[in-house]
Amino acid sequence: MATQELQEQPRRNTPESRRGPSSVSPGISYDLSASAASAVRRTTGLLRRHKLLIGTVIVVGTGLATLVAFRMTPLYTAETLIMVEHRKNTVLNFEGVVSDMTPDISALQSEVAILKSPAFAEKVVAKLKLMNDPEFNASLRPPPPGWVSALNPRNWIPDSWKQSSSVPLSPEEVERNHLTSVVNAVLDNTSVRPQGRSYVIAVSFDSEDPRKSSLIANTMADLYLVDQLDEKFKASKRATQWLEERLTDLRKEAQTTGDAVEKYRTQHGLTTSSNNESTVVGQQLSQLNADYILARTKRQEAETKLRDVTAMANSPRGASAVGDVLGSPLIQALREREVDLQRQIADATNRYGAKHPMLQALQSQLRDLQGQIKTDVGKIVSNLSNEVELAKGREQSLKASLDQAESKQNEQQQATVGLRTLERDASTAQSMYEALLTRSQQIAAQTDMRQPDARVVSEASIPLDPSQPNRKLILLMALVASGTLGVLLAMLRERSDGGFRSPHQFETATGVRSLGIVPRIPRFGGSPASYVVDKPVSAFAESMQNLRTSLLLANPDGRHRVILFSSSVPGEGKSSVAAAFARTCANAGQRTILVDCDLRRKSLHEMLGMPNNRGLSEVLAGTAALEDVIQVDPRTGLHVIVAGHGGSLPQDSLGSSGMHQLLSRLSVNYDRIVLDSPPVLAVSEGKLLAALADQTVFIVRWGMTKRGTAMAGLKEVIEAGGEVVGVLFSQVDTRRHAQYEFPDSGRYHGYRRYYAN
Q: Which of 295, 535, 562, 748 could link 395 by a cystine bridge, Cβ 3.0 to 4.6 Å?
């Protein structure tokens, strides 16, 4: 938590932190049960500390939810069940114009979409005249109350910001838009869903009137069945009309095509089909086509062979490659002779040298042999070229014969093709006429036996209890949500807490020892200076005694007599604590004097009920003697020097040698000189007094003084040379302080039976 963050920081500037590793506290405990218990205590403490905030959020949130829930108009839900028929009527054993519905998932979802369609909802609106119903027609509703209208977020938007259509609409279009809004309102209150894996569709409707919800749900079911029958009858009627028109046309077409066939046969003398002639021409074409393909294949092979031989003849291998490809014995023999001559030339070169006559003769033979090889290769290439030309000629000849045969076949079959076309047209027209005539008779037979593909298995009854709003659920959710929000706000508030909640925090952050806490006195307990005398056995008085004991232990030889009470900013209770502490010391028999050094905001005389005619200002200015300004508290015997009325600057007066001499004189006559200092961050006098005092008690208001402010004030005191004996937390709410997980949590509050507050 935020108030305990500084507990986890390492101690700084403390004696314990300078003693070395041997003085370090034991390591972190890994006891999960202890950690869980600590977390529970911290969480419980957070809830107790902020219970007012959490309770307020819960009360406000739940109250608003209750108001909204009871302001909501109750809606009643009526439901009717429609079952899609999966058993088919087989009295007529032929197919209908509109096929019966197959009750699978896709079909059920399609029927659900039909029931939720705007067109179907428009039929419901028209049948029940819902345009005149204010529940669905917003224009017929009375205007809401002013405060309800103010709570509507839509009304917060200025009219100038709202987009309006600039397209002019005709009265018919305006009326259509009006109808669309009513249809949408009906659809918003309609729910259509399949019932599990069955063939049943549940249609439910929400309405402010239970009878109206039942009526609309049942009307939807009835209109759905009627709509199925209407669609089937309309489809049958359209099919019958179309068939009648088509039958007339097909009858004429069949008669016309039959006459055309007979006329064509007469004109061309084709009483029978010339099948034999067609077969001969087909065989000739088949043979010519096969020969043409063979000739083309041979021509391609010859061209490929010529191309390969030509390329190999020009390659480095030359005649050798041609011989290997063509398998020519002559070329191979010449090649072997060439290899033998090359071997002999190599031997002669090694034996006789490059200019020997035998070597030159062998080289001459090699050149002649290579020339002969080249000539033979050229002849082979020439022969291959001739073969290619012959193959091309044969291919072209076969192509011409094939074209002639095809032309002849086209001429011979032209008359037959025309005849067959006319025969097919006549046969098709006759078949279509007969089929449509049969279909027309079937449709006429089944028109009177149309049935819907669904039936109502359960009509919607009038609901007795509203289905929404579920006020119990709304209140429960509001309670949970507001409680969660309250806890989150409490955690946020805890995180944003910028003050110190325990002296232990301050000691951990700064290293300055703690002098304890000062409980806050009751609201009507009077001033702290009076309360410490009126309630000597109270927790507040005990805190003053504890402070006195701590200062005695810090000063066992009694040399440090001047005690300064200082703080960072005004309002931390510094003057009240100083007055209460001084009275406590005086009651204990110590010679004590209280000096009001806050010359700007004089307050001690009011706390003690004394006049402020003359005081410290006059003593330091030399206009009054010390004995003349000392006043005696009649209840405790405490001596008091009030602030007085001075004309000089406070910092000049308090920083003068006269102030130092005054403290020296008082130290001779008193055991305790208690100085009430102004705040160190507000004015500079506080730092001057810190340098003059023997001990400084630094006051921090519990939970209110910002951490940075308190630490900055403490730094100012220390840098001014003040001897800070410890920090004292004032105005502590002991009840809330006990709810934290600090070492000193529960002090005074946990033992409140010992005190008479």
A: 295
CB 651 within 8 A of CB 684: yes
- Phi, psi (deg, nearest 5) at residue 285: -60, -40
Q: What is the pLDDT of residues 535-550, one digit of tens each?
A: 887 888 888 888 888 8
State the pLDDT at residue 450.
Answer: 58
10 Å CB burial of residue 31 (0-12, 13-18, 19+) is exposed
**577, 700 in Cβ contact below 8 A?**
no
Nearest CA to 505 among 731, 729, 750, 751?
729
Count of Cβ atoms closer than 10 Å to residue 686 Cβ = 28
| Residue where the block lists tokens 């043979």 | 287
Q: What's the distance, CA 436 to chain centroid? A: 62
Which position has the higher pLDDT, 406 or 30?
406
CA distance 95 to 114: 24
Closest by CA to 320, choosing from 379, 376, 382, is 376
CB 206 within 8 Å of CB 75: yes
Give yes or no for a contact between 123 and 223, defined as CB atoms under 8 angstroms apart.
Answer: yes
How do residues 673-689 score in pLDDT, each as one tens digit? 999 988 988 888 888 88
In the sheet that holds 190-194, the strands lie side by side as: 190-194, 200-207, 76-84, 454-458
Mean pLDDT of 615-631: 89
Per-residue confidence (pLDDT) for residue 738, from 0 to 100: 66
Classify 635 as helix, strand or coil: coil
pLDDT tens-digit profile of 409-434? 676 567 676 767 777 777 887 777 77
To 5 degrees, how large is the angle CA 322–CA 328–CA 333? 95
Q: Which two tokens stand for residue 679?
A: 């705040």
Confidence (pLDDT) at 187? 92
Question: What is residue 17's DSSP assignment?
Answer: G
| Contact call for residues 28 and 449 (beta carbons, < 8 A) | no
Q: Residue by residue, what is the 3-state secondary structure of 334-376?
A: HHHHHHHHHHHHHHHHHHHCCCCHHHHHHHHHHHHHHHHHHHH
pTM of the model: 0.48
- For tokens 């107790």, name the residue: 48
pLDDT at 190: 92
